[in-house]
């Protein structure tokens, strides 16, 4: 399967928290909240990196990425007017045709990134919808000011207690107060959220994160286990019904 990459011009690339960068590029593609792109630097990164869409505004596309290895470290060198290769949008995204009713957005760390575009789309679809954000970080927080514009309440938890509640985001979540939970973050956190939602009979959808090599379902690197067998996170997801995935 041929995968076509295109060059995109960098608008900005700034560190917004320790080892967390906001990368803005020019791109005209139509996107869905919860989709992702594969990004790479020609000659610098052998394998592309899957990065969730944080926000789309006119012809500008925003990504948040954490510096966790040599590939993402190379990204930090990008500056205005540089070029980055990308392909996307990829994946299914959140289904905004569903009636989520009272909804909790639950995220952990860099998993907070896709919640901004999701909150924007939900708010645009229904200005009166109850949308609350529950977010967990290790220490410092980011993206909260941007998200506040689109949600009713923000509940923050940090491991150190520097901001909000000291502990895990699952300590402050009450799924029984909502009709639907939409979740993105570390797998161990999402498993706990799913278990909590099942206990209260609350619908839950999760954005799975796996290592990916192609992003289009050809290489089978990113399979995850579901009640219907193994599924490709990049092609069949990354959004899955939490009652169907097996974590």
Descriptive overview:
β3 and β4 form a beta hairpin. This protein has five helices and 15 strands. The chain has two domains: 6-90, Elongation Factor Tu (Ef-tu), domain 3; 103-241, 3-Layer(aba) Sandwich (Rossmann fold). Helix content is 17%, strand content 36%. With 247 residues, the chain is α/β, with parallel strands linked by helices. The protein has helices at residues 70-75, 113-125, 144-148, 169-172, 187-200; strands spanning 6-17, 20-26, 36-40, 49-57, 60-66, 83-90, 103-108, 131-137, 153-158, 165-166, 180-184, 203-207, 223-226, 229-232, 239-241.
Q: What descriptors fit this protein?
A:
metal-binding, globular, electron transport, 36% strand, FAD, 2 iron, 2 sulfur cluster binding, alpha/beta, 17% helix, 247 residues, Rossmann fold, six-stranded antiparallel barrel, 15 strands, Elongation Factor Tu (Ef-tu), domain 3
Strand content: 35-45%
Q: What CATH architecture of the largest domain would you give?
A: 3-Layer(aba) Sandwich
> Which class best fits the helix and strand makeup?
alpha/beta
Going across the biggest sheet, name each strand in turn. 10-9-8-7-11-12-15
Rg, Cα atoms, Å: 17 Å
Figure out the total of helices: 5
Q: What's the CATH superfamily of the largest domain, by name?
A: Nucleotide-binding domain of ferredoxin-NADP reductase (FNR) module
Shape: globular
């Amino acid at each position: 399967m041929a995968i076509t990459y295109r060059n995109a011009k960098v608008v900005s690339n700034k560190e917004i928290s320790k080892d967390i960068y906001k990368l803005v590029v020019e791109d005209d593609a139509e996107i869905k909240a919860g989709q992702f792109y594969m990004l790479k630097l020609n000659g610098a990164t052998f394998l592309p990196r899957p990065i969730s869409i944080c926000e789309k505004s006119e012809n500008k596309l925003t990504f948040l990425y954490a510096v966790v290895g040599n590939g993402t470290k190379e990204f930090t060198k990008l500056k205005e007017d540089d070029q980055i290769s990308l392909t996307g949008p990829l994946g299914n995204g959140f289904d905004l045709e569903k009636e989520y009713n009272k909804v909790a957005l639950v995220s952990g760390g860099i998993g907070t990134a896709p919640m901004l575009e999701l909150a924007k789309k939900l708010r645009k679809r229904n200005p009166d919808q109850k949308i609350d954000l529950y977010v967990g970080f290790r220490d410092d927080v980011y993206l909260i000011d941007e998200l506040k514009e689109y949600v009713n309440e923000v509940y923050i938890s940090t491991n150190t207690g520097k901001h909000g509640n000291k502990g895990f985001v699952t300590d402050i979540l009450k799924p029984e107060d909502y009709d639907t939970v939409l979740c993105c973050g570390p797998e161990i956190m999402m498993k706990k959220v799913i278990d909590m939602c099942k206990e209260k009979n609350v619908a839950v959808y999760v954005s799975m994160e796996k290592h990916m090599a192609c992003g289009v379902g050809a290489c089978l690197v990113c399979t995850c286990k579901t009640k219907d067998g193994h599924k490709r996170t990049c092609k069949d997801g990354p959004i899955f019904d939490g009652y169907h995935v097996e974590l």
